[in-house]
Amino acid sequence: MATGTRGPVCTPSDAVTFIDNKDISVKEEIGKGTFGTVYVANYKGRQVAVKKLGFEDYPWRLPEPARVLRESVLEEAAIMQQIQAENVVRLIGVCLEPANYIIVMEFMPKGSLLNLLLSNTPLSWAQLLQFSTDAARGLCALHRPTESGPPRVHGNLTTSTYLLDANMRVKLSDFCTTKTKTSVKRYSKFRRGRSTVAYVAPENLRDINAPLTPAAEVFSFGIVLWEIASRKLAHEAIRYKENEIHKFVLEQKRKEEIPANCNSSLAAIIDKCRSFEDTRRPEMAEVVKLLENAERNCPSS
């Protein structure tokens, strides 16, 4: 399978809207992305979410901080603009004024999928399958090859990077780590030891500098599906201990058990995605079809 990369970054003429900072009224902080802090805000009378990037968001030393921040905002906005899919958070525009490097996007009032899963809110298998299908469609849209190049990869796929809109539909967000092969290697070093290691495919655990491929990200999606099915965090007891996860996955070749009460179709899809061999994992287009079929055949209550 082809290595995940990104095509050429959009230029301002590629329909990314530039927004005047004075038109944005920031209200309160609602979360943090991989890089940047997210706020709820008003933009010309509508409620939006804004992600502000600052120098402190980058763990490595920046040789030209203003240029790097500007490029980071434009790159993430370009990716969002290029995808334009129903299950991807929609871009509204960017602000590139000094000290205000901002991405403006649709507001997702129901928060992250992870927070919902870990709550006490009753959820049926029909709802969990809908979340799974929505999540798969978002990632499939990102993986789809483009005219400008091969498929992209997200780079930090977790249940936290999926958000819920007012209608409880799931959308993929946080594209700041959707990188080229070279940048994925650099990000891998930053990623080491953080909670995202719980979602990393065996081939990337084995070689932290190996490029992230769509097949590797299908494994990550399998972990997302496991969390949806179990309503628990993957590798919760050893989540921040990379050596322990190495031992569990690579040495013992173990997988966390799928809940006994899991919808049987969903359980089979989780197993396919979590295959230790990357060539045996389905592509996301196939995962979408499998989940759509499972959703159709699931009782509504």
Number of domains: 2
- CATH topology assignment of the largest domain: Transferase(Phosphotransferase), domain 1
The topology string of helices and strands comes to EEEHEEHHEEHHHHHH
Query: What CATH first level of the largest domain would be assigned?
Result: Mainly Alpha
Q: How many helical stretches?
A: 9
What portion of residues is helical?
Answer: 25-40%
Strand order, sheet with most strands: 1-2-3-5-4
Tally of strands: 7
Q: Low-confidence parts, pLDDT < 50 over ≥5 residues?
A: 1-13, 180-195
Portion in beta strands? 5-15%
* Shape, per Cα inertia axes: globular
Look at the helices and sheets and give the structural class: alpha+beta
Query: Major β-sheet, in short?
Result: 5 strands, antiparallel
Mean pLDDT: 85
Q: Distance N terminus to C terminus?
A: 39 Å
Q: What is the level-2 CATH architecture name of the largest domain?
A: Orthogonal Bundle
The CATH superfamily of the largest domain is identified as: Transferase(Phosphotransferase) domain 1
Rg measurement, Å: 19 Å
Keywords: ATP-binding, Nucleotide-binding
InterPro entries: Kinase-like_dom_sf, Prot_kinase_dom, Protein_kinase_ATP_BS, Ser-Thr/Tyr_kinase_cat_dom, Ser/Thr_Kinases-Pseudokinases
Domain Protein kinase: 24-294
Protein name: Serine/threonine-protein kinase CTR1-like
